[in-house]
Amino acid sequence: MATASEIAAVGVIGAGQMGSGIAQLAAAAGCAVLLLDADSAALSRAVASISASLRRLAAKGQLSQFGPQTACEDSIKRIRCVSTVQDLRDADLVIEAIVENEDVKKQLFVELDEITKASAILASNTSSISITRLASATKRPSQVIGMHFFNPPPIMKLIEIIRGADTSDEVFAAVKSFSERLGKSVICSQDYPGFIVNRILMPMINEAFWALYTGVATKEDIDTGMKLGTNHPMGPLQLADFIGLDVCLSVLRVLHNGLGDNKYSPCPLLVQYVDAGRLGKKRGLGVYSYAQKSSSLKP
Ligand code: NAI
Asked: Looking at residue 60, what is its pLDDT?
């Protein structure tokens, strides 16, 4: 099994909001990155956004934190888009960031277990799904681990590492020091629904939806209340839009099913928005509309 400094080739599966940022971080840290998505349009969008983001960071002089290899254009060249799981056979570490659905993720872990080399570490960026259950889809549960980045990965300082029931100490140590090589701080969670951050964050977001749904206040006042009243950098409804309302709903369902407490039952308004395709900023419409300019908030 590769130690952190030996992790040279990283496979990233899912080139959406999270996978594109994770690919960018690994490339900027000097790794060869193989980026895979079922949707070729997602890959094109990812390459464009990674290039723009790296150029912005380089212009601000902020790429140097990752070391000398990180000249912007070199980092971009280290990312290769691929179209099949077979293309990941030589990866030392694979990080999966596909849709938050346990059955779909398990099927992917079965394929990864068959295709990747015996020493490869298989990581999931899941927000809430059990690492132990994902690991049980493989014949190498000691080499499966949760590596939970935050959105957007190049900016957010944290990686939450989740140990499955069988994750080995060596794999934990390698992934911890690899995370530090990416410039992140690390926290470690045991494998319980929602881990640490989403166990605490998602009930707050859900409560904000209940406040909106039951007419306690407008969305703007709910968000301003939490920003100015509790010193959060953004309100819970805006944050939900940034995370993706589909992701928030999936996590709440995992908390509800896994912890068996009705306090985690998703607010009907959140369910309705997702049913209507209002998935948040990534779709231009969630609680707020982002149709004109991605950074502007419009009621
Ligand atoms: P997204 O919807 O932006 O991207 C998901 C990508 O995965 C899409 O491009 C889709 O085409 C691709 N995909 C889906 N199934 C696939 C498959 N079987 N094989 C290959 N590609 C596939 O989603 P996002 O927000 O990037 O989330 C991805 C994962 O990261 C989820 O597990 C989510 O819970 C987790 N996560 C999300 C965070 C957020 O703030 N959005 C934060 C931390 C974790």
From this structure: 81
Q: Which residue has the tokens 């949760």?
A: 146
Which atom of ligand 1 lies nearest, measured to the CA of 282?
3
100 CA distance to ligand 1 middle (Å): 6
The pLDDT tens digits for 225-268 are: 999 999 999 999 999 999 999 999 999 999 999 999 999 999 99
Locate 102 and state its tokens. 């346990």
Half-sphere exposure of 240 (CA within 13 A, CB side): 36
- Locate the DSSP E strands across 133-256: 144-149, 158-163, 185-190
Instruction: Find out whether the beta carbon of 108 lies less than 6 Å from any atom of ligand 1.
Output: yes
Asked if residues 86 and 111 have their Cβ atoms less than 8 Å apart, the reply is no
- ipTM rounded to 2 decimals: 0.99
Question: Token pair of 111, please?
Answer: 């394929």
Residue by residue, DSSP assigns 14-58 as --SHHHHHHHHHHHHTT-EEEEE-S-HHHHHHHHHHHHHHHHHHH
Shortest-distance Cα residue to atom 44 of ligand 1: 127
- Pairwise CA distance, residues 37 & 169, whole Å: 30
Pocket test for ligand 1, best of 22, 127, 155 (most atoms within 8 A of CB): 127
